[in-house]
């Protein structure tokens, strides 16, 4: 490579490195603001602001969903395996909402630490499989093992 | 290492001839792969156990998103070649690939929104993955706008190349956004080192679709670049020969 081209290549790489470092610093400073939601542990530690609308995300705890008999109000517990937060939502839940599913709820924390949500979004994982395979997993009792393995992998 | 092929690329005439021989093969491959992949993916691949049939939009969404990012990386590489080696064909490649990349980004965003409504419960959410993808679309718009707005060919090429190179920083951000931050978008289903998170009868049609999209991009890019090369070299003798040859063939037919 002749010296002129080499010099130009270095200039291009230097510009790229400069922008890269500047952006990396900006993004790491904004780390907390870019996160879409707070985990239950962060809420328990008081990292989430009180009195403003926040998003909380995590897994819906097994057996925690309580539907009210005469309205759309639903209470459920969202956990990240360490801490958990109770969420109250009144409205139609997305199709993928079920126990064991990851969700993100938006709402305000009240004084008791209950999150009154006005929006619930379902989060789905990166695993896809045909229904027959899932049935086979359930029948052989491998489902729990599969999901444990999946969670272990995700953490 | 032999670099003659690289320096040959600097010759518009050589590029025009070699691309003419690749074009039909790429077009045929794209047609076959896209037909097979679409029919297989939309009609024969099994439905997902949670999402049912709505998961099938993956066969459009993922290839478009792959391509949107790959095209931008290609833009940056061509930008470096154009800046450092002053190769005209690289400038042509940057300006001709940008609109295709913009369309792929639009397809990825729109199919993602359509997919998001039934599965997540919303068309749009400002999470890191979706936002960085939107920024990619605006970067493409920037490259297109610079190419159109600056009438001096060399200045336009330089401006486009700089934006393409600087903007490539967004690509790792898109890629790792789902790992660095809490997002609604799920992590990647595919990686080079691990096995895919879906059975073979689901990912094989997806692989075919991805390859089909790449072939389609190659064919459309070559077509657009050939036209642009003819326009730019309109006064040279080889273009005149080429055009008369084509016209004569038309007359005979």
Choose one word for the global shape of chain B: globular
Cα end-to-end separation of chain A: 47 Å
Helix share, percent of chain A: 25-40%
Query: Based on DSSP secondary structure assignment, what is the total number of beta strands of chain A?
Result: 6
Catalogue the unreliable spans of chain B.
none
CATH architecture of the largest domain in chain A: Beta Barrel
What's the CATH first level of the largest domain in chain A?
Answer: Mainly Beta
Q: Which class best fits the helix and strand makeup of chain A?
A: alpha+beta
Report how far the terminal alpha carbons of chain B are from each other: 46 Å
Strand content of chain B: under 5%
Percent range for β-strand residues of chain A: 25-35%
Compute the gyration radius of chain B: what is it? Answer: 20 Å
Order of helices and strands of chain A: HHHEEEEEEHH
Average pLDDT, all residues of chain B? 91
Number of helices of chain B: 9
> What is the average of the pLDDT values of chain A?
81
Instruction: State the total count of DSSP E strands of chain B.
Output: 0
């Amino acid at each position: 490579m002749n010296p002129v081209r080499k010099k130009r290549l270095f200039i291009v790489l230097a510009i790229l490195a400069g922008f890269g470092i500047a952006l990396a610093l900006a993004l790491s400073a904004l780390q907390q603001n870019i996160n879409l939601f707070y985990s239950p542990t962060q809420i328990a530690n008081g990292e989430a602001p009180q009195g403003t609308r926040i998003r909380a995300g995590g897994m819906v705890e097994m057996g925690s969903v309580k539907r009210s008999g005469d309205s759309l109000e639903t209470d459920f517990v969202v956990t990240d395996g360490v801490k958990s937060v109770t969420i109250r939502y009144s409205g139609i839940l997305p199709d993928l909402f079920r126990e064991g599913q990851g969700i993100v709820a938006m709402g305000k924390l009240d004084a008791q630490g209950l999150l009154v949500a006005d929006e619930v979004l379902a989060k789905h994982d990166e695993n896809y499989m045909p229904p027959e395979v899932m049935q086979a997993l359930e029948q052989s009792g491998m489902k729990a093992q599969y999901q444990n393995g999946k969670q272990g992998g995700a953490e | 290492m032999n670099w003659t092929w690289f320096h040959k690329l600097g010759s518009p005439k050589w590029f025009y001839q070699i691309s003419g021989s690749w074009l039909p093969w790429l077009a045929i491959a794209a047609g076959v792969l896209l037909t097979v992949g679409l029919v297989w993916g939309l009609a024969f691949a099994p439905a997902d156990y949670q999402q049912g049939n709505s998961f099938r939009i993956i066969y459009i969404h993922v290839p478009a998103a792959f391509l949107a990012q790959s095209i931008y990386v290609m833009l940056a590489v061509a930008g470096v070649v154009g800046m450092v080696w002053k190769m005209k064909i690289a400038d042509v490649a940057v300006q001709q690939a940008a609109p295709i990349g913009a369309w792929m980004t639009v397809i990825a965003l729109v199919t993602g929104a359509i997919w998001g409504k039934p599965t997540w419960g919303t068309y749009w959410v400002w999470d890191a993955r979706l936002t960085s993808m939107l920024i990619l679309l605006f970067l493409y718009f920037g490259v297109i706008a610079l190419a159109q707005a600056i009438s001096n060919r060399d200045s336009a090429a330089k401006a486009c190349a700089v934006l393409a190179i600087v903007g490539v920083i967004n690509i790792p951000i898109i890629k790792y956004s789902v790992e660095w931050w809490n997002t609604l978008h799920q992590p990647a289903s595919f990686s080079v080192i691990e096995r895919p998170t879906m059975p073979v009868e689901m990912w094989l049609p997806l692989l075919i679709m991805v390859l089909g999209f790449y072939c389609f991009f190659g064919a459309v890019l070559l077509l657009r670049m050939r036209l642009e090369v003819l326009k730019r070299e309109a006064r040279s003798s080889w273009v005149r020969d080429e055009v008369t040859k084509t016209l004569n063939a038309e007359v005979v037919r």
